[in-house]
């Protein structure tokens, strides 16, 4: 018994450049923590950047805090942006040691910078010290968020 089969092929091309945003990543703990870390980093950089004046109040502790906070704010922004714009990045990057190392180093350096700034501000109460003290407290909260991200990255890396 023979029968006839017709195969029809069609080629479709599209020229639209659609940007896909992985909004589901923001519903995970890692996404929420990265978003909060970025927000607190922006607040800390804004306060310290506005209050920094090396001739009146600036100090090495303030500069150290400013550099560390800016560094990890930019790094977290790049991580968050890459996880939001790619579906595979969020799942693959979480299983590598990169996030574990990044978050643990960010936790340690940001905690050290925040505590150094807090001690310096407490010892030298000068003009507008409340804002700088607030920035150092935000830095400690941000360090706690990085610690939480380190724990999540460790559990993900070990496959728990």
TrEMBL record:
GO cellular component: membrane
Matches recorded under InterPro entries: Marvel, MARVEL-CKLF_proteins
UniProt keyword terms in alphabetical order: Membrane, Transmembrane, Transmembrane helix
Chain ranges of the MARVEL domain: 25-158
Membrane topology, from the record: Multi-pass membrane protein
PROSITE patterns with a match to the protein in the record: MARVEL (PS51225)
Name of this chain's protein: MARVEL domain-containing protein
Compartment(s) where it occurs, according to its Swiss-Prot or TrEMBL record: Membrane
Sequence intervals crossing the membrane: 35-52, 64-88, 100-119, 131-154
């Amino acid at each position: 018994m023979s029968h006839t089969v017709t195969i029809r092929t069609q080629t479709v091309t599209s020229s639209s450049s659609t940007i896909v945003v992985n909004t589901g990543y923001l519903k995970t703990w890692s996404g929420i923590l990265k978003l909060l870390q970025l927000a607190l980093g922006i607040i800390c950089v804004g306060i310290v950047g506005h209050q920094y004046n090396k001739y009146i109040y600036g100090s090495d502790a303030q500069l150290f805090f400013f550099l560390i906070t800016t560094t990890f704010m930019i790094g977290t922004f790049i991580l968050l942006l890459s996880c939001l714009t790619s579906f595979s990045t969020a799942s693959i990057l979480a299983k590598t040691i990169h996030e574990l190392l990044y978050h643990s180093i960010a936790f340690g350096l940001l905690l050290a910078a925040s505590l150094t700034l807090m001690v310096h501000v407490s010892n030298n109460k000068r003009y507008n010290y409340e804002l700088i003290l607030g920035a150092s407290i935000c830095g400690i909260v941000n360090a706690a968020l990085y610690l939480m991200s380190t724990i999540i990255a460790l559990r993900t890396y070990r496959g728990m």
